[in-house]
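In response to reviewer comment 3 from the previous cycle, which asked for concrete evidence that the modeling workflow produces usable outputs, we include below a single protein chain processed end to end. The sequence was submitted unchanged, and the resulting structure tokens are shown without manual editing.
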Amino acid sequence: MFSSTYESAIDAKGRVSVPASFRAALGGVSRIYVWPALDGRACLEAGGEQLMSDYRQILARMSPDDPAREAIVHSIFGRSADLKMDDPGRIKLPEGLLTYAGITGQIVFSGAFDRFRIWNPEEFAAYDAEMVAKTRASRGQIDAPFREALAAGAISNAKPSNGEGET
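The workflow returned the following structure tokens.
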């Protein structure tokens, strides 16, 4: 799972280090696929072999003539860069993808569960603020499923121990 946010810089040779926790989430493979975000935001989406395998399985269930399938295939597989990390965990993002995302020097890596995103820091700050506001506005949407899972015993309501016994 890709989680957390990291800020870095592109070096003089145009390379950037993929965060160590993201490299670990890739399962030790050195291949990364990167493409323009599907939602049209000025960022890049990225993932490893597992994510691409998931997409292949989903797309294989769709008719080859389905226009939605064709659009997704083009948007992910046709517009992606297949990158190889070097031993220290660096990648070189293609100029066209950097231009798409407005990335020039500083870069933000943002975890997104089964993938990660690569941002220009200003675009990320705006996205972050938007998502925080949406989270505050939609907190109630997770309350019912949480209560149902709690009632079913699927999750525990126990408070974490403070390590000092009962107080």
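The beta strands are 5-9, 15-17, 31-36, 43-47, 81-84, 90-92, 106-112, 115-119. We consider this sufficient to address the reviewer's concern, and the full set will be provided in the supplementary archive.
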